[in-house]
Amino acid sequence: MDARPIQHLIVALVALALASAVAWLSFASAGDTAQREAGAAAVDGNRGNEVVGDRGDAAKPAHRVRTAVALGAAYGGVASICGRVLDADGGPLIDALVGEALAPNPTSTTGDGDFVVELVDAPGAEAGARVRSLTLLVLAAGHAPSVTEHTIEGQARHDVGAIRLLRGGGLRGRITDRTGNSLALASVTVTPATPPPWSRSLDGAALVSPAATDAAGDYAFAHLPPGGYRVTASAPLMLSARSNPVQVQDGVDTEVDPIVLVSGLQLTGTVVDAGSGRPVEEFAASIRRAGPLDPQEKGTTTQQLRRRIEALRADAARAADAEAHAQQIRIAAELEARVPRAIAEASTQSVAMPSDPGPVVARPQGKFAFDGLEEGAYAIWIVAPTYQVARVEPVEVRRGVPGVEVRVALVSGCMVRGKVVSKRDGAAVAGAKIELMRELPASREQDQDQRRSLYPWFFARSGPQGIAVLATRTTPPAASSSRRRFPAAAS
Length: 491
What we know:
Layout (H helix, E strand, L loop, with lengths): L3 H45 L10 H16 L5 E7 L10 E4 L6 E2 L5 E5 L12 E9 L6 E8 L3 E8 L4 E9 L9 E6 L18 E2 L5 E7 L2 E8 L6 E2 L3 E3 L4 E3 L3 E3 L3 E9 L8 E10 L9 H18 L3 H27 L12 E2 L4 E7 L2 E8 L6 E8 L7 E6 L22 E7 L4 H9 L13 E8 L18
Parallel strand pairs: 1-7, 8-15, 8-16, 17-23
Antiparallel strand pairs: 1-4, 2-3, 2-5, 5-6, 8-11, 9-10, 9-12, 12-13, 12-14, 17-20, 18-19, 18-21, 21-22, 24-25
């Protein structure tokens, strides 16, 4: 057998392998060159967007941008923002907090004041949106906060340049009562006089923590960004008051005119058992301002209807022509027909629980009091063990008029007891929330549509619809034995 064909085949295979190796090395070298060129172009492009001036030596920005590009690659290509924070003297600021205004985890600046923040898509926004707006917040000790808005395009790294913080200005003043006596431990807050451009992204009041007055009634705020502000003061048993707009300048402490607080009004009452008339000495009481003392804005639905009817009849009596007179009388008659229905609905409607009725505490002789109120119409809720929830409204509070003693008569209700257990092993579950609701019936139109539909399951409700008349939580051993009661009609 001739060995030459085998030798020729071996030589051909070796040549093919060498050619493949040379081709692969050439391709890799070209790829590395393209990658280096692209990286240089990215660095040059980011350097072109820098804010020049007060940035230190020329080599620092290039190093920082390269670092940002490397970190951005580690983020998987998502958008990021980089920059440098400088103090009031122009030097790098270390350990300053930088981040989006609504983001939970800000980043800290390095020893050179540099930062890189990875941008996260806002809830509800399209992931990887081409254009997005963000509010950048920078905080540092001894400096005023910095809030700036930026527009970001695409998924690249964006250099915002140098952010130089200011020392900020100060506000100081005193809180007194009407007689000129200083008020200690009064709460004082500072808010922007006019909404800043970024107010939709960040609450201006959140940038400055509230302060409390000292024994002399004095307060002070430091490191406020320059601009206009208002100072608001409040104290127990007092009505809150607010200053006129005050201008703050960088590096200047501004004195605010004294803020005078006046005593608030008081509303008192007694809670009794509707059957025996004896005081109920254990209950929770809460109050909510229902509105101002405007005759057209206070009262129950029935009271407002009757007030409107009287106004229409008065307008009809003053009408210049018969057509206007007839129109006013017709509208008044239509509203008059609604009064009986409003009365019936009010008598059968359950009283919804307030969101926070407060704790049930002992109250000797069934007395309660609310202090520091301003003029207006109020609604009062009373929640007591073994009784129905009671609501009294409207209760008018007027300055210069002796306070009215409110008397609340509670009616006994029914009680529901139960126990919440785990479906898996039957163990008692403590801390479970239990709500008792008066279910609202479906409308007549909805029932008719459901009967006519070929797909009645489209009308199925996902859960109970109604008014929560009772809310409690299970206690060990997970028995929902609420001490509060509700009307029998709600059981």
